[in-house]
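> example.struct
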């Protein structure tokens, strides 16, 4: 599952150098997973997946602790998504000069997006402030696509989270890409498919 997810993410944003999944093997060992890529360049590019959301967690992607090779400059997933969405990052060319078709992100599996680390309990206490947050969220997040509903629980297990339900999975994926890297009152938001 991890091989498929990370491979498709690399392909989606154009960090592969040839068609197909660039990950040769994946070995899980306790809290760690080790992936081996087919080329050195794709291994360097994979470092840009740091902080990618996967199954409710942000993956930390880096070299093994005993790695002694050259240090490769890289960004985080939020940086790469922003560059991809702005057109700074382009897909590799296929034979004949046509751009390779992007593989769909494996994480685009739901119409519902969960936003975490945006709110505090204090934000939800005052009714007026709660309504303002609800309206601001609807206004900001509707730019990515048609919203079916916005839910901001004030109590229970989902308190301090925001749930956005879009009409399509594509709009939900646009929201995650568009919100990547945003901060709220100094807190960096986390955006996941539910």
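> example.seq
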């Amino acid at each position: 599952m991890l091989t498929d997810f990370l491979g498709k993410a690399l392909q989606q944003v154009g960090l592969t150098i040839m068609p197909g999944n660039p990950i040769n093997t994946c070995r899980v060992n306790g809290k760690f997973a080790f992936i081996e890529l087919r080329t050195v360049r794709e291994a360097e590019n994979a470092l840009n997946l740091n902080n990618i959301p996967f199954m409710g967690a942000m993956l930390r992607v880096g070299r093994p602790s005993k790695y002694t090779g050259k240090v490769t400059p890289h960004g985080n997933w939020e940086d790469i998504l922003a560059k991809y969405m702005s057109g700074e990052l382009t897909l590799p060319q296929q034979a004949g000069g046509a751009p390779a078709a992007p593989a769909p992100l494996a994480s685009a599996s739901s119409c519902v997006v969960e936003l975490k680390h945006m709110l505090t309990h204090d934000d939800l206490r005052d009714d007026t402030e709660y309504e303002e947050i609800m309206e601001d969220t609807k206004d900001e997040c509707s730019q990515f696509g048609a919203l079916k509903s916005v839910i901001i629980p004030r109590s229970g297990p989902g308190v301090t989270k925001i749930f956005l339900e879009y009409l399509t999975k594509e709009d939900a994926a646009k929201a995650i890409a568009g919100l990547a890297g945003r901060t709220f009152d100094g807190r960096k938001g986390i955006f996941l498919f539910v």
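> remarks
Helices lie at 2-12, 40-46, 77-86, 121-125, 127-141, 169-179.
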